[in-house]
Amino acid sequence: MKTVTLAQTGALVALPRPIPIALFFSSFVPGGTERQMIELSRRLDRRVFAVHLVCFHRCGAWQARAEEHAVSVTEFPITGFRRAHTFHQMRAFARWCRATDIALVHTLDIYANIFGLPAAATACVPVRIGNRREINPDKSLAMIALQRAAYAFAHRIVANSDAVATRLRHERVAHAAIDVIPNGIDVAAFAAPPRGRPLRRVITVANLRPEKAHEILIDAAASLVATHPGLEFHVVGDGPRLAELTALAAARGMGDRVRFFGHRDDVPALLRESDIFVLPSRSEAFPNGLIEAMAAGLPVVATAVGGIVELVRHGENGLLVRPGDSRDLANAIQQLVDDPRRAAALASQARRTIEARYSFERMVTAFERVYAKELRRRAPMALCPAARLAS
Question: For 53, what's the count of Cα atoms within 13 Å in the CB-facing half-sphere?
Fold first, then answer.
């Protein structure tokens, strides 16, 4: 038997073995949720937690990184929620939880919430935690309703911003059941030397989905190049709108000024080579791309929506603009290009904001506290009958 301390929870626990927990992904295809939760799964204290990964589809560019430190990886493939096979798989997941003696299930997206929370309750898993990482899910009304119903089987729902927590309360999730844990970042990986060059390369990093409003950036770019012909616009990310946005850029005469890079694994390097970061989204929970750009010491321009306003303070560590307004966006970019000294001051404060509040270490510690609190309350035997727990 060994004695360990749950990181910064104040709980001293004598453990015969690490506590078996399951983190439930849809897949390991690159995305904002996947990036955050893979880092969580890798960084949880292995002296305390035996981390099992569960997924619908064992695939994706980040699969190897996700699985590297997992005790096991188990797949329960489904093709939809209206098929009888899905209910068979839910029962199989419940049996797996019982057989593996899982003490805590943490579901990580809307599909995992719908499938995993009720199945874990059927298996009498002591602690069940859901996740919410978007304000308005880009899903059917039926899927949104199913997720709301699934929340009833969770003991806690973790939101990644106050804006998301507010949305959960509007959906009648009890305030006391919601924890807010902002996204984290590997701050050191995004360190960049001060930029002494003219500001000419504008970058955005986001999946090519409708809510990201890339067309607004293309419109702003078209209006800016007449007075700032040296500007370049780099779009990093993949998604269903690639062909549409490429055609739009060409139609606006911006085919040689707006470059589409697709999915990239070298985002820190791309940010170091850039001068201004832009995020024109119509809706955001707590965007990873914006956090990364601020950590990289870039001046940022973003829309005043969702969790962005919790991160960017207008005129202090970035500029905020109205969503859907390409003229406002173009004006903000022009302010930074025309005043490099102000841009540098905003960028420096942006970096300090991330260093102080948004490291992966802080994020993981916050999740460990939530796990420890619920395990102490609902599954003390999973810790140890003789556990000495702080009040």
Answer: 28
Nearest to 70 by CA among 15, 125, 16, 20: 20
Question: What per-residue confidence (pLDDT) applies to 61?
Answer: 92
Which pLDDT does position 10 carry in this prediction?
Answer: 47
Question: pLDDT at position 4, please?
Answer: 52
The two counts, helices (H) then strands (E), for the chain are 15, 15
Closest listed residue to residue 369, CA positions, set 5, 3, 8: 8
Q: What is the CA radius of gyration of the chain?
A: 22
| Spans of the chain below 70 pLDDT | 1-15, 383-391
pTM of the model: 0.86
User: With the C-alpha atoms ordered 286, 292, 296, 300, is the resulting torsion angle positive or negative?
Assistant: negative
The closest of 307, 309, 327, 138 to 217, measured between CA atoms, is 327
pLDDT for res 379: 87
Which is the CATH superfamily of the domain at 187-357? Glycogen Phosphorylase B; (3.40.50.2000)
Provide CATH 3.40.50.2000 ranges for the chain.
2-184+359-383, 187-357
Residues 242-268: pLDDT tens digits?
A: 999 999 999 999 999 999 999 999 999
Domain 2-184+359-383 sits in which CATH superfamily?
Answer: Glycogen Phosphorylase B; (3.40.50.2000)
Alpha-carbon span 41 to 45, nearest angstrom: 9
